[in-house]
Amino acid sequence: MKSVDRRDFLKLSGTTLIGLTLGGVALRANAQEQLQADDPTAKALNYTPASTVEGSQCNNCMYIQGSEGNDHRPCALFPNKLVNANGWCSAWVKRPG
Where is the High potential iron-sulfur proteins family profile domain (predicted)? Predict the structure, then answer.
């Protein structure tokens, strides 16, 4: 097994960070149409555009992207789709902080 020296580790870490950053930008740029309840992924995750779970909405989930204040925003779980900020799905995880 080859050991990784500090220089290689830093190169790999920097490349990974750049990839994650650009991936997030691409996700926000490509998301254009609103997620429909009949979408197969939406069905699999029990997505609803209006949350019935108190305190749990897409708006405060760790997977939502984009700036707050928008009614529909990109979500990491639904590529190229916009979710309702007041929605909910079974993959909801409270945003840290």
Answer: 29-97
Sketch out the chain's domains with CATH numbers: 6-84 (4.10.490.10)
Q: 64-67: long-range contacts at Cβ-Cβ below 8 A with a sequence spacing of 24 or more?
A: 64/95, 65/24, 65/27, 65/28, 65/31, 66/28, 66/31
Instruction: Specify the pTM.
Output: 0.66
User: What does each C-alpha distance from 58 to 33, 39, 52, 85, 87 come to in angstroms?
Assistant: 16, 17, 12, 5, 5
Q: Which of 12, 94, 3, 5 is nearest to 54 (CA)?
A: 94
53-74 pLDDT per residue, tens: 999 999 999 999 988 888 999 9
Q: Do the Cβ atoms of 16 and 8 come closer than 8 Å?
A: no
